Amino acid sequence: MRTSSARVRAAALALALLAGCERATHDAPEATGARTVASAEGDVVAALPALPASELDLQVAYDLAPAVAALEASVPRTFGDLAQRKQIPSNPKVSVAFAAERTPFRVTVRGNTATIASVVTYRARGWYDARFAPAVSGSCGLGDGEPPRLRIALTSTVRLAPDWRLRPRTRIAAVEPASDDTRDRCRVTVVKYDVTERVVNAVRGKLEGKAALVDERLARMDVRQRVDRWWALLQQPIRIRDDLWLEVRPSEVRMGALAAEDGALVAPLALTANPRIVSGTRPPPSRTPLPTLGARGAVGGDSAPAGLRIRLDAALDYAAANRIVAPRLVGRTFERQGQRLVVRDAALSAARGGRVALTVRVDGAAGGQVRFVGRPVYDAPSGELHVQDLDYDVASEQLMVRGLDWLTHGELRDALRSRARWPASGLVEQARDRLERALNRDLTDGVRLSATVPTARVLAVHALQDAIVLRAEAHGRADLRVHRAPPIRRPASRPVVAARSGPAPER
């Protein structure tokens, strides 16, 4: 087997990734369904059914930094003043003052909901003005005591609409004591007044209108522009070699459940495509516009099967096949009843009806050519091509009757059947490897097409005019990896509240 494999390599076997022998005919409309190919002498070889659609994975991240930056700039970090006493309307003898400070806003994401939260610490003092006695006061958070805390949070639920626009909905989810512990409530005992709710109301006032601000900033993101750019890249043919091109041909986009990554919302997208490999001049790019976004599994009724499927061909031309089979047959001797027959030459060629012809020249007791025909098949366990139904054609049957009747009818045929074998798994493996290398490349700066194609399964064997073609289905996974999404310039827009902050670069 090693010798045969070496002959295959040395013969530089014709290897073609022709996606079903598709020749680039860019002006002709593409036929629907399975395509047929012509064998020798114009016979039509049975076509394979169309492959199921493929899927490519893509992730789009919505960076929340611009919205958080706007919120950070519009909500003061400190507010209140311990020197500004304010009377309690329900008890004019009591007055209070507080000073608060908040931490920077932090983002956590769960599912399609982002929570923007901060912790407010505050200190407060209360006074009671007695009519005929000096004022008395008390405090919380001053001196050695720990200051009480409030937790503030806004939640933003985001969805990506079919028109590729972000649809956020933000609300104030919490302005409340950070815990149920007594340290997080401020009750000034001497004046019998709980300052906690007064601080809560003051903080809530600072957040007035901020939910709308977050929504406005999130809605600015032009997700369609980014996805449209990647969509256009996938419609460009990818060069495999001089006259061989991969066309991805994306057609639909569906979205799965949102996830979280590094403080951003991430939408996993599945691109449905019908990739093929064509030979010839560079095909023009596809012109399919970016479609509306569908829910995963909803577009076209059923979910496209996961993974990548591409049809590829591996071709063994007849010259290379002859370099392998001739040494196995030439010199083979058959003797019976004192008569001797020697095989002097053997050549494989195309025959009608998708078959091959093995023509053997013999001399000795009889001279001439004997022609055998049969249909090549692929034996998966051995990884070899062979012609298991190889048999005499009609003319050679008559020759056997006339001059070779001394030789058992099946002896020569069976000897040829057992030796007319060609190693073919290496051809398919080379085709698979070439395809995988073509699918791993940078499409542009920061955008890389990555794929693994671990398997290629032979579906059919066709004897064509110039070669025996193994038609296989390659199966794997592919995705677009975006290392760094470039910032997208956005038109200036007026925020819905007075505070303004320039957006941070988009993720």
Automatic annotation (TrEMBL):
Q: Which residues cross the membrane?
A: none
Give start-end of the signal peptide.
Answer: 1-24
Give the matching InterPro entries.
Answer: DUF4403
Protein name, as recorded: DUF4403 family protein
Q: Which UniProt keywords apply?
A: Signal
Which superkingdom is the protein from? Bacteria
Annotated stretches, region: Disordered:
277-298, 487-507
Q: Which PROSITE patterns match?
A: PROKAR_LIPOPROTEIN (PS51257)
Tell me the Pfam families matching this sequence.
DUF4403
Which residue windows are coiled coil?
Answer: none
